[in-house]
UniProtKB/TrEMBL annotation:
One of its GO terms (molecular function) is penicillin binding. The lineage of its organism: Bacteria, Bacillati, Bacillota, Bacilli, Lactobacillales. It is a single-pass membrane protein. This is Penicillin-binding protein. InterPro entries: Beta-lactam/transpept, Beta-lactam/transpept-like, MecA_N, NTF2-like_dom_sf, PBP_dimer, PBP_dimer_sf, PCN-bd_Tpept. Belongs to the transpeptidase family.
């Protein structure tokens, strides 16, 4: 076998050895460096899981995160630790938790982490909480050496985090004269004391008697008693009674006692229920949308109670403390003074609101009363309605279902619902026509019969009228409410000019008044046919205007052509749209509206008996699926003080069959003049 020998000089050999040693050293050093980096990464990942769980309040991610040695030392299980975090941070409504200045550094075989946390609470902000903890190796991975100070710095074993709150007084909703539409009242409340119910059959019999008298089902009584917080000595609320209702029939029952509770009270009940609204218990969904609500029991659910909830509810006061097992305050995390809610003063007149609702009586409809010079809403009523006090106290399922299934829809507010305005809209068509130079009070149209169509291209479609008056002027057209006259006038004006005139009003505008509503609509798209133009002229077609918007539009006739936007708060700016129609057009239409009342043939002549100088227009809008059939008819009245423009009334009666809007409005108009 042939072998080869490599001969190296001494220097070359030493160079080879040195190179090999350096290579091994370099490789070993890189590995060690990578190992350290890997360990740092594991430690940082553990800390990130902890801080992210804190930020997101997702404490279930803490499973397996803490060392068993530290948990044993603290005499607590991992499950108990997770529950503590959940009860403190979720239970006390902590939100917007932020983490800053996070660092992890090596200390011998351990790692030390530090960060600063801040968070919002219902009582204010907790800021600059400096956390420090230790990471140790356990089963080959880094885990946190858990201590109580990792809940809050300064916290020790057996300490608790407690919130003491002072509830603010909810602000009142007032009318223009300071009369309380919504306030806080003291109500009697009945409830159960579990230990006094007895046990076994005695308990069952007592609950059955309580169920029969209170009309609360056995199932609901059982649910109330099985709530997690209930103890033998607890007062378990069942029912809030009427303010002046005696508790005797209930407290005579074994296991039932009473207390007093502060709740919202609505003096005018159904008369203002849609507008004022009501409050109700806060739900988990409410808190999810607005975390600050965690400090409250109730919130505004509908109406002004909802629109102005933040101002009305105020800000709770109190403290969040770390407290020792001997109830010593170890650390104050946050403290604040309560701020009672603000009062909301509306432009409403409570007496007029009640009168408006009473006038609607058993009808289905709405009444809006304004001060046309300023746009101030004096009354906004809708019928049928519901009792908001029953909603606050807790309405039974049977009573709620009865209201919910009522075909007249008592939960629906009609004053902000869009309707075809019917013949009341002819006043606006007349004004637009005057300003377009087409309509004038003395111009005559000769119309034969009770129906008319432009030409044969309209097929089977005709415009109809009620009175066969052969010679018609603008005044007589308004007095007799002649559909054909205004259809012909609109065709003479032309769609482009007519639309331009209408758009000077408040169509397609979103009003700033704090009442939810869709903008007023002229048509679904545009007026693209003569038939639609004709129908629009006398208040049908595709017009959709709610009673509040109608009242605002008709204010031009009381204001020499200026439109007053509706306002609901006394400190709202009185916004006016100048020159919607000319003063001449406003005056001409106003004089014709006076004749609608004064002329024996006028459709509002029944109001003359009131002895008030009124300008008015009635309207009937028919809703039907096809011509030559009878559809639902809605009756309207717009009437205002023709002398001083001190008030304007817009009344709607839905599905009118006997009593018209003008008859319904008469008592209110008399009261307004007084």
């Amino acid at each position: 076998m042939k072998t080869s020998h490599i001969t190296l000089s001494g220097d070359e050999f030493m160079k080879k050895i040195i190179f090999a040693v350096l290579a091994v050293a370099l490789v070993g050093g890189a590995g060690a460096f990578a190992y350290v980096k890997w360990q740092d990464s594991l430690a940082q990942r553990t800390v990130a899981t902890f801080t992210n769980g804190l930020k997101k309040k997702q404490f279930e991610t803490y499973e397996g995160l803490f060392s068993s040695t530290s948990l044993k030392k603290a005499d607590i299980s991992e499950k108990e630790v997770i529950t503590k975090y959940d009860k403190i941070f979720n239970g006390l409504g902590m939100s917007d938790i932020t983490i800053s200045d996070l660092s992890v550094e090596k200390k011998d075989s351990k790692r030390v982490f530090r960060f600063t946390a801040a968070m919002d609470t219902g009582l204010g902000k907790i800021s600059d909480q400096s956390y420090e903890g230790t990471l140790v190796k356990e089963d080959g991975k880094f885990v946190i050496d858990w201590e109580y100070r990792l809940i809050f710095p300064g916290m020790k074993q057996n300490d608790k985090v407690l919130m003491y709150t002072e509830k603010p007084e909810r602000g009142n909703i007032l009318d223009r004269n300071g009369v309380k539409l919504a306030t806080n009242g003291d109500f009697p409340q009945i409830g159960l004391v579990p230990k006094e119910l007895g046990s076994g059959k005695e308990r069952e019999d007592n609950l059955k008697k309580i169920s029969d008298v209170t009309e609360i089902s056995m199932e609901k009584l059982t649910e109330a008693l099985e709530q997690s917080w209930v103890t033998d000595d607890s007062f378990v609320p069942l029912k809030i009674l009427e303010r002046n209702e005696g508790t005797g029939p209930y407290t005579d029952l074994q296991g039932v006692t009473s207390s007093r509770v502060s709740r919202r009270f609505y003096q005018f009940g159904e008369a203002a229920s849609h507008l004022v609204g009501y409050t109700g218990a806060i739900t988990a969904e409410d808190i999810e949308k607005s975390p600050e609500l965690a400090s409250f029991e109730t919130t505004g659910k509908t109406g002004l109670e909802r629109s102005f909830d933040k101002q009305l509810r105020g800000t709770p006061g109190g403290t969040i403390n770390i407290v020792s097992e001997t109830d010593e305050v170890r650390k104050v995390l946050v403290t604040s003074d309560k701020q009672d809610g603000q009062d909301i003063r509306t432009t409403l007149d409570a007496a007029l609101q009640q009168e408006a609702y009473n006038s609607l009586a058993e009808e289905t409809g709405a009444m809006v009363i304004t001060q046309p010079k300023t746009g101030e809403l004096l009354a906004v009523a809708s019928a049928p309605a519901f009792d908001p006090n029953s909603m606050v106290k807790g309405m039974s399922d049977a009573d709620y279902n009865k209201l919910a299934k009522d075909k007249r829809k008592p939960f629906l507010s009609r004053y902000n619902l869009g309707y075809a305005p019917g013949s009341t809209f002819k006043t606006i068509t007349a004004a637009v026509g005057i300003d377009a130079g087409v309509t004038s009070p003395d111009k005559e149209r000769h119309i034969e019969g009770l129906k008319w169509q432009k030409d044969a291209s309209w097929g089977d479609y005709f415009v109809t009228r009620v009175s066969d008056v052969p010679t018609v002027t603008m005044d007589t057209a308004l007095i007799y409410s002649d559909n054909i006259y205004f259809a012909q006038e609109a065709l003479g004006i032309g769609a482009e000019t007519y639309l331009k005139g209408l758009k000077k009003f408040i169509f397609d505008e979103k009003l700033s008044v704090k009442i939810p509503m869709e903008p007023a609509q002229i048509s679904n798209d545009t007026i693209d046919s003569d038939i639609l133009l004709a129908d629009t002229a006398y208040g049908q077609g595709q017009l959709l205007i709610n009673p509040i918007q109608q009242a605002a539009m008709y204010s031009v006739f009381a204001n020499n052509g200026d439109l007053s936007y509706p306002s609901l708060l006394t400190d709202d700016e009185n916004k006016v749209k100048k020159g919607v129609i000319t003063p001449a057009a406003a005056d001409s239409v106003k004089q014709a509206m006076r004749q609608v009342v004064d002329d024996p043939n006028g459709t509002a002549h029944n109001l003359q008996r009131l002895g008030i100088n009124l300008a008015a227009k009635t309207g009937t809008a028919e809703i039907k699926t096809e011509q030559d059939t009878k559809g639902q008819e809605n009756s309207f009245l717009v009437a205002f003080d023709a002398d001083n423009s001190e008030f304007l009334v817009l009344t709607l009666i839905e599905n009118y069959s006997g009593t018209s809007a003008s008859e319904i409005s008469a008592p209110v108009l008399s009261k307004l003049k007084q």
